[in-house]
């Protein structure tokens, strides 16, 4: 039986998981593809540190990418490196060699995904990137299937397991942010430098990738509000719980008045919302289509095997697909024509500890007001104005059905 030869760039958690899965599931891969899948090469940073990692001695292990490109036969390159470079350059060279590429690198792909798609289309090879968004949760495959007929109206998701774990721990175990972060680091859920996770960058990159798939384009990055969870307090967590609300770091993208509008920020969700019960390191994405309605996907968003699962499924897809018929990202037909109840961009907000709130001369509809909260409907620019006028108050979007009772 002939073989499909694969190179793995990077041998950290993801790279090692892919290597192990290829060999543990060789029989199923062979049946699915009609060929064996063989790891031909692995690129590592330091050749002296790869010993005792369980790598077959027939595999080329090198810290020189050019050695891999010189292999006579190479079909697929799997990239599991961190950062934009050298990952982008490596993948461009792989495409030029005629290899399919698969990546788990969300930052690189958020910035350069269109460029890689375009180059791959010209060379007639495939690009797999399921692992860039939600680990083992098949969000991208689902969106691509939905887009045959459905128009996507809105996507909301918990795309970062570290932040979700921290918020869950703060609520259930009454921890401060710093205590919950330390617990996440001790369990290996958070890096020594957790900035990408807790400041919302990781979720932001993933949201930009989803935007291109769903809508064929991205909003201006500078126009997308991005807030992390570092300022969320125990007091706010407890106060929200008394109101039947939970804090989640929500990434959201939708069409408003023909424009793609996104945000990444701590958000309050009600029990009626599908993301309310997503706890710990789980990821979940809620997708609204104009025909199918709302679909919610949930599962492990990170880790060795969940991410390897996404890569292996991409491997099947890129090898089987007819890549000469691929089209690059482009604005989807009909985007902005879907009727939406929130076409003007209004959202529901909870203003916590408003004090002597200044709400005059701004277009808001105050639904309910108490000593500690104001529940209102307003658009993004209005909330920005209110934040400037009310420095002591906190503003959080509310998702799901909610009614603030004056007796609270």
From TrEMBL:
Domain Aspartate/homoserine dehydrogenase NAD-binding: 10-128
Gene Ontology MF annotations: homoserine dehydrogenase activity
E.C. no: 1.1.1.3
PROSITE patterns referenced in this protein's UniProt entry, alphabetically: HOMOSER_DHGENASE
Highest taxon above the source species: Bacteria
Top EC class for this record: oxidoreductase
Catalytic activity: L-homoserine + NADP(+) = L-aspartate 4-semialdehyde + NADPH + H(+)
Keywords assigned by UniProt, alphabetized: Amino-acid biosynthesis, Methionine biosynthesis, NADP, Oxidoreductase, Threonine biosynthesis
Pathway: Amino-acid biosynthesis; L-threonine biosynthesis; L-threonine from L-aspartate: step 3/5; Amino-acid biosynthesis; L-methionine biosynthesis via de novo pathway; L-homoserine from L-aspartate: step 3/3
Domain Homoserine dehydrogenase catalytic: 138-316
Pfam families registered for this protein in UniProt: Homoserine_dh, NAD_binding_3
PANTHER family in alphabetical order: HOMOSERINE DEHYDROGENASE
Family affiliation: Belongs to the homoserine dehydrogenase family.
The name this protein goes by in its record: Homoserine dehydrogenase
């Amino acid at each position: 039986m002939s073989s499909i030869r694969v190179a793995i760039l990077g041998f950290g958690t993801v790279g090692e998981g892919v290597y192990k899965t290829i060999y543990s599931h060789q029989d199923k891969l062979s049946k699915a593809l009609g060929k064996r899948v063989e790891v031909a090469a692995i690129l590592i940073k330091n050749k002296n540190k790869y010993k005792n990692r369980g790598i077959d001695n027939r595999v080329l292990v090198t810290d020189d990418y050019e050695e891999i490109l010189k292999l006579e036969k190479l079909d697929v390159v799997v990239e599991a490196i961190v950062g934009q470079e050298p990952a982008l350059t490596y993948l461009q060279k792989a495409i030029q060699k005629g290899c399919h590429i698969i990546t788990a690198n969300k930052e690189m792909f958020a910035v350069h995904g269109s460029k890689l798609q375009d180059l791959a289309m010209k060379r007639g090879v495939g690009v797999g990137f399921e692992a860039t968004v939600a680990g083992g949760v098949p969000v991208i495959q689902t969106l691509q299937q939905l887009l045959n007929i459905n128009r996507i109206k809105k996507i909301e998701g918990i795309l970062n397991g570290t932040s979700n774990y921290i918020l869950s721990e703060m609520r259930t175990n009454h921890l401060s942010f710093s205590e919950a972060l330390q617990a996440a680091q001790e369990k290996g859920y958070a890096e020594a430098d957790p900035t990408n996770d807790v400041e919302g960058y990781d979720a932001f990159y993933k949201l930009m990738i989803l935007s291109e798939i769903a809508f064929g384009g991205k909003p201006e990055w500078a126009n997308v509000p991005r807030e992390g969870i570092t300022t969320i307090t125990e007091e706010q967590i407890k106060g929200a719980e008394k109101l039947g609300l939970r804090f989640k770091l929500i990434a959201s993208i939708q069409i408003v008045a023909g424009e793609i509008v996104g945000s990444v920020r701590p958000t309050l969700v009600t029990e009626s919302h599908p993301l309310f019960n997503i706890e710990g390191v789980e990821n979940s994405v809620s997708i609204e289509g104009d025909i199918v309605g709302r679909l919610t996907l949930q599962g492990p968003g990170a880790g060795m095997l969940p991410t390897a699962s996404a890569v292996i499924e991409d491997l099947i897809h890129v090898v089987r697909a007819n890549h000469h018929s691929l089209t690059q990202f482009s604005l989807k037909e009909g985007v902005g024509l879907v009727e939406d109840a929130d076409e003007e961009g209004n959202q529901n907000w909870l203003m916590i500890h408003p004090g002597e709130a200044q709400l005059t001369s701004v277009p808001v509809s105050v639904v309910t007001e108490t000593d500690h909260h104001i529940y209102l409907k307003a658009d993004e620019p209005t909330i920005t104005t209110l934040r400037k006028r009310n420095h002591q108050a906190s503003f959080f979007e509310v998702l799901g059905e909610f009614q603030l009772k004056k007796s609270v």
